[in-house]
Specification:
This protein is mostly helical and 122 residues long. The protein is built from five helices and no strands. It has helices at residues 6-24, 26-33, 39-61, 67-89, 97-117. It is globular, with a radius of gyration of 15 Å.
Length: 122
């Protein structure tokens, strides 16, 4: 695997894990991330995160730059980071979401560099 593909691979794995975990074992997910009143919403977000992992893995196997995938990933990551920050500052979610915030910002920066510096398709 090329160096430029490491971060999309990590992001893809991260989204698979965070997407499947609450669906498979909600109790351990809540133990780590804190109690939530709307379990249906936790599971909905988990399901919605899973397709983004497919986009990350698609990018690894594709030699041409894909502006649409990068833009969608930037929007996803910045959206999740914004939600993390807003609800943490409001005291609604646990500090553990600050780790997610940091990861989402790293992923966003990667995709911005992907757009700016990776070769364009011919």
């Amino acid at each position: 695997m090329k160096k430029k593909h490491i971060l999309p691979f990590v992001q893809g794995l991260y989204f698979i894990i965070t997407g499947i975990w609450p669906l498979v074992h909600i109790e351990s997910f809540l133990y780590i991330t804190g109690y939530k009143t709307d379990i249906w919403l936790v599971k909905t977000v988990a399901i919605l995160i899973l397709p983004y992992s497919v986009l990350c893995f698609y990018t690894i196997g594709n030699t041409k730059r894909n502006t649409a995938i990068a833009t969608v990933n930037i929007m996803c990551c910045l959206g999740l980071a914004g939600v993390d920050l807003y609800y943490y500052l409001k005291g609604v979610i646990s500090w553990i979401y600050l780790i997610d915030l940091a990861l989402e910002m790293i992923f966003s920066i990667y995709w911005i560099f992907y757009l700016l510096y990776f070769k364009r398709p011919l």
